[in-house]
Amino acid sequence: MTDIEAAIREAFEHTEYDLGDVAVNRRQVRVPVRQEGADPDALRAVIEEALGADALAAVTVTTERIAGEDTVGTVVSFRYRD
């Protein structure tokens, strides 16, 4: 588990959101949230608090099927800056 993944998981522990498998590939991060219709601004705020607002670039929020399950959720993808 990377430091980024650990920080994101820890930040979401105290929210009502249930995460899928957080993926980090180089500087691209994908955070799947199992709740359909989750508030994009709230999700971004949790991630910004965990990593710092300056750490996020090119943030995208989509609704999609999570990891081949029947669950449709919200996915936050972003590039991470040091």
Overview features:
82 residues; alpha+beta; Aspartate Aminotransferase, domain 1; four-stranded antiparallel β-sheet; 27% helix; globular
Description of the structure:
By secondary structure, the protein is an alpha+beta fold. It has a single domain (1-78), classed as Aspartate Aminotransferase, domain 1 (Alpha-Beta Complex). The protein is built from 2 helices and 4 strands. The protein has a 4-stranded antiparallel sheet, covered by helices on one side. α1 (3-12) packs across α2 (40-51). The protein is globular and about 35 Å long. The two termini are 18 Å apart.
Quick structural gist:
The chain is of the alpha+beta class and 82 residues long. 27% of the residues lie in helices and 34% in strands.
- Main sheet summary: 4 strands, antiparallel
Top-tier CATH class = Alpha Beta
Strand order of the largest sheet: 1-2-4-3
Low-confidence stretches: none
Task: Report the sheet-strand fraction.
Answer: 25-35%
CATH architecture: Alpha-Beta Complex
3D shape:
globular
Q: What's the number of structural domains?
A: 1
Helix % is 25-40%
* N-to-C CA distance: 18 Å
H-E order: HEEHEE
Calculate Rg over CA atoms. 12 Å
Residue-averaged pLDDT, rounded? 90
Give me the count of strands: 4
Number of helices: 2
CATH topology: Aspartate Aminotransferase, domain 1
Structural class: alpha+beta
